[in-house]
Design goal:
The complex is a heterodimer of chains A (about 800) and B (about 160). With about 800 residues, chain A is an alpha+beta fold. The chains are: A alpha+beta (about 800), B alpha+beta (about 160).
Amino acid sequence: MGNYIGKSVKRVEDKRFLTGKGRYTDDIVLPGMLHMQIVRSSYAHARVNRIDTSAAKAHADVVAVYTGADIHTDGNIIGVPCGWQVNFKNGDTMKEPPHPLLVKDKVRHMGDAVAIVIAETKEAAKDAAELVVVDYEPLPSVTDVGKAAAAGAPLVHDDVPDNLCFDWELGDKAKTDAAMETAHHITKLDFVNQRVIPNAIEPRAAIGSYDATNDKYTLYTTSQNPHLTRLLLCAFVLGIPEHKVRVVAPDVGGGFGSKIFHYSEEALVIWASNKLQRPIKWNSERSEAFLTDAHGRDHKTSAEMGFDAEGNIVGLRINTLANLGAYLSTFAPAVPTYLHGTLLQGLYTTPAIHIDLKAVFTHTTAVDAYRGAGRPEATFLLERMIDLSAIEMGMDPVELRKKNFIPAFDGVEQEGYITQVALQYDSGDYHPVLDRAVEMVGYEQFRKEQAEARANGRYLGIGFSTYIEACGIAPSAVVGALGARAGLYESAQVRVQPTGSVSVYTGSHSHGQGHETTFAQVVADKLGIPLESVDIIHGDSDAVAFGMGTYGSRSLAVGGSAIMKSIDKVLEKGAKIAAHKLEAAEDDIEYSDGQWTVKGTDKSIGFGDIALTAYVPHDYPANLEPGMDFSSFYDPANFTYPFGAHIAVVEVDPDTGKVDLKRFIAVDDVGNVINPMIVDGQIHGGLAQGIGQALFEGAIYDEEGQLMNGSYMDYTMPRADDLPSFEIDRTVTPCPHNPLGVKGAGEAGCIGSTPAVVNAVVDALAPFGVRDVQMPMTPERVWRAMHNGNGNGKA
Amino acid sequence: MGIPINVKVNGQSYSKEVEPRLLLVHFLRDVLALTGTHVGCDTSSCGACTIHIDGEAAKSCTILAVQVDGAEITTVEGLSPADGSDLHPIQEGFKEEHGLQCGFCTPGMMMASLDLLKRNPNPTESEIRHALEGNYCRCTGYHNIVKSIQHAAKNMGKEVAHG
């Protein structure tokens, strides 16, 4: 045992991607396939008085044109559902207006779908879509969450007063108010955690196909969770029995959250494939992706952090407005609440916390989980506040953090830490990550260089961030009590083939994370067989029993644990067969390195022989079923809690305001690590996205609700020359409650990095009296902050 | 309506009639079924569609199929032997240094990298990062892509030395 776990095994999935043989949804061509183009609103808010499809229908090669009237009168199709319910403070159910596949009466955001055109070729569908004439009556719109929540704002849904989907609170208000009353110092900051757009490089796509011979549908889709998509599509949208729909998520070109959700296009291609009895493909163009992929973040927050005279945090009081967009996306209500409010303890012993939150509709694209989902917003809030507090109290930002860290606990000898905001952390040891990061950056030396540089008119800055996240989502009973309309377990089937090779079917989905390698490492090690003998199969609802998919850094912690359960069953049955074959008692049999051995003897039998015996059971234990094929479902006992410390070093050009990210140090603790190379890669990618939010990214809507930067020409993401090579390290604090001791690594980089960069820029601009810079910290914003924001342009 | 073109793609000659507005990337993907070249945007910004035309990197979403009449094109499918028996050093570099995650930007990234290594066989990190300005990756943070290219440069250097 132990040949693979912990080693940087090169990825088995790489070859197909490197040779151009990856099979993404848009690569799939089915016989007789038609193409769908969607007519989308160019207004943020407008009444749809009339849709004239006659010219489009008359266009060459057009097969059909459908509007909302065609679809929503067919059966009882209402629209795509929301998968999470949050209640108002007073117990009322959240407002949940319909999210139609195609609107009939009103468009509610730029890009809202009005009609679909289906044609023999992509070109004909696009041409004809231009010929659909929609008579819009423009209405006043609101995109800013603060304005939408204000009295008299235009309503997104007529029956949702004040655009308020729900209000919500967490923590002890009375205790927090009392703590703030007695605080020696209170740091206050109002800030915006801006809307960002996920931008997986593969745009979304879907193909719907209906086979009349067996009355069965197939949906190929760019999804992070094909089974959940099938469940929502079948049970809540189209009313088709699930056994009549196969959902395949083939190779998927990145997700970052945006491909978790069930989107209306998936239902449209399935619905139309039955109407027309032909396969139908839709693939999003980038400009369409900007308007329709669920966006992330978009919070407006007022924060207060109170301290005693020694610098101990005594209270945290938060008011947040969360922008939901025009409609409720699949997990939208959970993101600002149970994935954000619950993380406000951070790594600190804060004894009193209260958050008051309003979730608000606006005339914008729906907002939902984006890499980190709520946890980056919580971390940003805490880490900006503690850094600012250090400045205001004249303390060192590292010392202030360490002073307030929760003491180490392993979750075994010491109980998990119970927070003020409804969670119990599994295990944590927070000083070493920060100590290591400080050592790597050479903090003392940096402060000397910074002072020298300032004397020479150069502005260097250092920014710290420490974070915790809740991953491995999640115990079903817990999330059920919090409003999830699904369980969040995972399934796994381990099928030992008669010749001893192994096929593993997992409900997790890999879209870059490398499951085909990492999961195979686990299986090969635990069974003591070569890696080449293991295949990981995912992303096909006809092959995999069930699955909840990949998001929230859950694949290994939850999906891997399900695999471990099935492996245990394989080994248990193998031992029974081996005991029979070796004529020994089952208790005397032990398994190691692919061999069952009678303890203390040289009598043994190999994994392959036992597998063959299970399928050719001539000489076989009585009353034991033939075969070697086990399914398991694993429901986690708790969330997992990775944590870490990030440090950014920047230089700001005082003439242009341009921020040069010179170094980035990340020390993360994601529990046990199966494949260090892959985990490092996950951290790198997360860092780039988190840094991207700090420096480059942000959706911009104009007064009319137009997305002003809805293309790669206009929306800035980090390119290779915007980033340094990262300096990363890790500590290992195993998760005490899952069999692999793993915590999850997918989001860590994106959660910790953003505030580190902002803190670094603020530190660089300290001589100008700057205490905050709004993200993204463009050269213009930084320059203005130096000159007239809260600085005077003079150091 | 179709305009006849003759092109050589990955060493194989094709004579086809194409619509004047057909983009090269769609010619490769939809007409020749070479789906390794990807489309990630509609503004020539992402580089997922990067191929080589007569030995130089180009974004195939920015060129009409009719413009490559008479040209020789290499796509990701042409980097290594068709039977997959061997990987090109650039492919090897990306594999060894974990320069890819979801794989979607990878073909374009490798074609752009090769173009760099042709012009500059031993680039610095800074030169590599500048050369990749036209290619977006959302998964790797570019960290391991830089290492992949350095890895390939080293091995391609060896090949030249031996060859």
